[in-house]
Design goal:
With about 150 residues, this protein is α/β, with parallel strands linked by helices. The protein has one domain. The chain has two helices and eight strands, in the order αββββαββββ. The strands form two sheets. It has a five-stranded mixed β-sheet with strand order 1-2-3-4-6. Strands 5-8-7 form a three-stranded mixed β-sheet, covered by helices on one side.
Length: about 150
């Protein structure tokens, strides 16, 4: 099973406070229980990963499209953003009444994400009409170097 939010990732409470301040304190901002993404296991093919929603979310596991680097020593991997946005839509739409649903759901990850096969990575993507977005914070880590 996947890990909780990694220790090397940014503090989620600080991100929550920043988002709350960004909206001028006009709307509540909450951090939900983490979803988990599993890349390894006897049942998982090389180009797939499994998304497991937070406990009590009301949705089941989903297969995600993934890719891994061809160089084993790098162990780089990336998730395709479109299925992730679909999972976030499911989480947003779980509210019993539309007026009680969150304004938006923003997912953050410490994994690379991509959209097109030619992408090395993308920082994020939004589904504006769906009120969901997903962002990778991996490349913002201070220890990651983009060039020598």
């Amino acid at each position: 099973e996947g890990k909780e939010w990694p220790a090397y990732g940014p503090d989620l409470e600080e991100l929550r406070r920043y988002t709350y301040a960004f909206y001028g304190g006009a709307m509540p901002v909450a951090v939900s229980a983490p979803a988990r993404v599993r890349f390894e296991g006897a049942d998982i093919k090389a180009n797939k990963a499994v998304w497991k929603p937070p406990r009590g979310a009301g949705t089941g596991e989903r297969w995600l499209k993934a890719r891994r680097s061809s160089k084993a020593q790098l162990r780089r991997r990336a998730l395709h953003i479109d299925p992730l946005l679909t999972c976030l839509c499911d989480l947003r739409d779980l509210g019993p009444q539309p007026e009680k649903r969150p304004f938006c759901v923003v997912g953050v990850t410490m994994e690379d994400i991509y959209s097109a096969p030619s992408d090395l990575f993308v920082a994020g993507m939004a589904g504006g009409v769906s009120h969901v977005a997903g962002f990778s914070l991996l490349r913002y880590h201070p220890h990651i170097r983009m060039s020598p």
